[in-house]
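Hi U.,

Before I forget, here's the chain from the pilot set. I'm dumping it here mostly so it's searchable later in email.
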Amino acid sequence: MAILSKEEAKSILEKVIGFSTADECEANLNGNVGGNIRYARNTVTTSGMESNTQLVVQAAFGKKVGTATVNEFDEDSLKKVVQRAEELAKLAPENPEYMGVLEQQTYQESKTFVQNTADITPEYRAEVAAASIKPAKENDITAAGFFNDGYGFSAMMNSKGLFAYNKSSNMEFTVTMRTNDGTGSGWVTRDFNDVAKFDAEEASQVAIKKSLLSKEPRAIEPGKYTVILEPAASSGLIRNMVFNMGARGADEGRSFLSKKGESGKNRLGEKLFDERVNIYVDPLHPDVPSNTWAGDGQAIKKMDMVKDGVVENLFYSRFWAKEKGVDPIPFPGAYIMAGGTATTEEMIKDTKKGILVTRTWYIRTVDPQTLLYTGLTRDGTFYIEDGEIKYPLKNFRFNESPVIMLNNLEALGKQYRVDGNLIPVMKIRDFTFSSLSDAI
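Structure:
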């Protein structure tokens, strides 16, 4: 029962809403089917499939709200979950920020579902693993990877007549390649809605090449360097910045977008980045399609967050929008950062001296008000001189803010999809490496 059609989901949700005696009722119905394969030390370790469907019912009496969950869908179970939500609501204290349910919204249709991905078989997953393991063995390398795929649906309905439905599919792949002498490591990630865009052999070869190139790395002094950040190296920093663009945090003085010395004001409309920085939301983008409605039923539409370096919009919850007398803007499912046409290789050729970073990880906040983060490079860090990679480097710890980083922009390259977002290769000057790391 995991995947329900629009009509099937609507039928169940209508029953749920019909059973409610609360002032307001909202129900969310979600289902998914997924499979995976994991391998390590050049051997498959686990594989499997899962299927699940879940109903979440929220009942409200005034501003008193209760929630209950069930994964059984016979009529008695539906009645019981509604009753439980209502019982909990009556016991709950009032939520002063509860905004009530929305009336019907208008939604665009995004092509988030591709049948190719839904049709993935266990045999296909085994072929993905083989496409990594076989060339790894041939190159005296050990592979450890994970491939998972899934498809599902989400639907919601409330007592004011709102109904929304979306069907989606996705696949994700990561693999780490370690040289058997223990000195080199390469890594790659891929994710798509349409598995036809995925090439396991190509992706594995990228990681193998990085692994072999990174053998016997050298140490150089930490400091400020020109860097070429592959998309997986900057994605965590950019993602953290985008999802910190909420108006409330800025207005309350807790954000990098708070206006210093002016309580209750934010930096909307100010130029905070290089004029080449453009970040926007577009749920209909063919390369990163996403749901066109948020969890509370608000419609998500194409919108600029940063345009020509200027902060164009902030995210507003319905409560905070009402407090400020503006329209609400929901958080999106994905973001897009505009780029250029140059490949990583072309950007390397245009670099006199610098460092290529494949990936960053273990990113943690140092100062939320300046958006300063710390983290580590990993799985392929290289020294560039006169347009060529000269030798591999030992990994670094970095201390950097994406705000400063996007003001030190030298060039933007081709966009790549990482974690459902589109991010370009970036060349940044004066990127701060604070110390060395002995980890490979």
